[in-house]
Design brief:
The chain is α/β, with parallel strands linked by helices. The protein has 17 helices and 17 strands.
Length: 547
């Protein structure tokens, strides 16, 4: 069995990494917001679960204009979440428990409260301070029109005008001005940041919006072609690597530079790219001389369909193999509807419209959603490569789709003119106990309200309970360590319609029945099943591991 707790430089290739959204994990001081001390107190949960590492979403000083991804200082801790000493204590305890620690790094933009941006506002047009960001004069007789038709990911123009007449670029919220990565001072500062956290014992980095750092800022700036065209929609309209600000070829120079820093540590620090680009282009970010790994969003976006999933899995493995990387798999994260709900939505359902209906159009059967989520989890954990698990999925948590408008925090709600509720439904704080004002999350109420149904999903309600989702995850992760061998799979031929079956390593097999009809259980010893086996048959929405 692979020794993932050692100094093995390749520990990440088949690891299970648990994403912690710190404001929603555990609240130690009772202010309703999760914090580092709360996380440290609950690290034994992750150790007992059997994951290999935790990935910590942003914990830096932030006004929370975008859930912490608006960073005011890249080398400090938000005082509401703790101190650098608290961070060090968390890393020490994680390492004592055999857990690696990854942190989020957000290099595309800063907060508008960052000292650099505040300096740029004071310095005025043409200054060296403004050159760290993307400032431009506008179009029109008096510069009253934005410099380009570029749109924000969250809706509306990606440009904001200042009282002095200049405009600055923000691909996300106006509180997140984009950095100018042509500026050597910007590059040098992030080298310092990588070393700062690596020196504190961090084992790896998740790179936010990794595909957007390099931009074509030569004059005149190029339009995308239509004001309503999103950046993603515009990608096919440009030759690969030539989009004005997404997935440009020059971005790879940055990551080759970073890899030299990461490789200077023993063991080398790992990194994974959040790059929303097609598979062949994504492989470039995962090359050994760059970040080494990239998130596979095709798998997350695939429907509950055997044919579609088989193709995505095969393509993803081939893409990773071509890059010299291992594949990555993820079902949920802090940006998408939790898969216990999402996988039950009929094909073609608009998740934004579903959330706007408070989850009533259509209504999702929670028990059926949980059954499907458990099957999806066992399928994912059987695949070669790294699995990224989002906090709360080990409890089977569904999306909280009916959050009232008055409690929403995600900037998407306001920036889209209330046409998208945003991502708060997957960020509702975790339930640890079956009672209390926030089900054990903290001493008082949580920053987002938890539904009463969370009591039945709490850790306390599932701990030690045979057949619970929590125990399924624990057993699966224990078995996975014993069964891991190699990074390949072999598809089993002649499977019934709607069924995925493959063999790993020394012949252990995974059979996932995604159809609506029970199938005969193949020969072999059942090591684990996402749902009970009845009369020698695998029911619908069930995955089985066979020895």
């Amino acid at each position: 069995m692979p020794d993932l707790s050692s100094r093995d430089p390749n520990w990440w290739r088949q690891a299970v990494i648990y994403q912690v959204y710190p404001r929603s994990f555990a609240d130690a001081d009772g202010d309703g917001l999760g914090d580092l001390k709360g996380l440290t107190q609950r690290l034994n949960h992750l150790a007992a679960l059997g994951v290999d590492a935790l990935w910590l979403s942003p914990f830096y000083p932030s006004e929370l204009a975008d859930g912490g991804y608006d960073v005011g200082d890249y080398r400090d801790v938000d005082p509401r979440l703790g101190t650098l000493d608290d961070f060090d204590a968390m890393v020490e305890e994680a390492h004592r428990l055999g857990l690696k620690v990854m942190v989020d790094i957000v290099p595309n933009h800063t907060s508008h409260q960052h000292v650099w941006f505040q300096e740029a506002l004071r310095a005025g047009p043409g200054s060296a301070a403004r050159d760290r960001y993307v400032f431009r004069d506008g179009h029109g007789a008096n510069g009253e029109l934005p410099p380009t038709d570029w749109q924000s990911v969250f809706g509306g123009s990606a440009w904001r005008r200042l009282p002095d007449g200049q405009w600055y670029l923000h691909l996300f919220t106006p509180e997140q001005p984009d950095l100018n990565w042509d500026n050597e001072e910007v590059r040098a500062d992030f080298r310092t940041t990588l070393r700062f956290w690596s020196d504190r014992g961090v084992d790896g980095f998740r790179v936010d919006v990794a595909h957007a750092l390099a931009k074509d800022l030569s004059e005149p700036l190029r339009d995308l072609g239509a004001p309503e065209l999103s950046a993603e929609d515009a990608l096919p309209h440009f030759a690969p690597g030539t989009h004005p600000f997404y997935d440009r070829d020059e971005v790879h120079e940055i990551y080759r530079d970073w890899r030299k820093i990461l490789d200077a540590y023993i063991p080398p620090r790992m990194a994974v790219a959040e790059a929303w680009v097609p598979g062949a282009r994504r492989a470039r970010y995962a090359r050994p001389d760059e970040l080494g790994q990239a998130f596979n969003f095709e798998y997350l976006q695939a429907g509950w369909d055997a044919g579609e999933l088989k193709q995505v899995i095969s393509d993803s493995l081939a893409t990773a193999r071509a890059a010299g990387a291992s594949a990555t798999w993820v079902l949920s994260n802090h940006d998408v509807v939790r898969h216990a709900s999402r996988l039950m939505l009929p094909p073609g359902t608009d998740p934004d419209a579903w959330l706007l209906s408070d989850g009533t159009a259509p209504v999702v059967d929670e028990s059926a959603g949980l059954r499907r989520a458990r099957a999806a989890t066992l399928l994912m954990l059987a695949l070669p490569g790294s699995s990224y698990v989002y906090q709360g999925e080990e409890l089977g948590l569904p999306e909280v789709a009916d959050l009232p408008a008055e409690v929403l925090q995600d900037p998407i709600w306001e920036q889209t003119g209330h046409t998208s509720k945003g991502r708060d439904g997957c960020r509702v704080p975790l339930p640890w106990t079956t009672s209390g004002p926030s089900y054990g999350f903290g001493a008082g109420a949580a920053w987002l309200p938890q539904p009463a149904s969370f009591a039945s999903y709490a850790v306390e309600a599932q701990d030690g309970v045979e057949g619970s989702t929590l125990e399924l995850y624990r057993r699966a992760l224990r078995l996975r360590r014993k069964l891991l061998e190699g990074e390949e799979l072999t598809w089993v031929a002649d499977t019934p319609p709607g069924v995925l079956a493959f063999a790993r390593g020394d012949g252990w097999r995974c059979v996932a029945n995604l159809s609506d009809t029970a199938i005969a259980l193949p020969p072999g010893e059942v090591r684990l099943s996402s749902a009970p086996i009845e009369d020698g048959r695998i029911g619908p929405d069930t995955t089985v591991w066979l020895a």
